[in-house]
Write a structure and sequence with these properties.
This protein is an all-alpha fold. The protein is 51% helix and 0% strand.
Length: 80
């Protein structure tokens, strides 16, 4: 098996890519998209909920605690 993300460490298990997922998304790319959308005022929902939905769409499995920690980090980053 070839590791296409060599050199990139991701604390959340990405598992297998979901069928029909266009570009390969990582937790980092999804987090950056959510940050940008928050800054633009496009995210009104709970950040944890948004991340959970995006991870599910991308076929990324993450423990709720990991999602909450990442959501908290994003919220702090965007508010500063």
């Amino acid at each position: 098996m070839t590791d296409s993300g060599a050199g990139m460490s991701d604390p959340i298990d990405s598992g297998e890519a979901a069928a029909g997922t266009a570009p390969f998304e990582t937790t980092e790319s999804i987090a950056e998209e959510v940050r940008d959308e928050i800054r633009l005022g496009h995210v009104q929902d709970d950040v944890s909920h948004v991340l959970e939905e995006r991870f599910e769409e991308a076929g990324i499995r993450a423990r709720p605690e990991e999602v909450d920690d990442l959501a908290e980090e994003i919220e702090k980053d965007v508010s500063s």
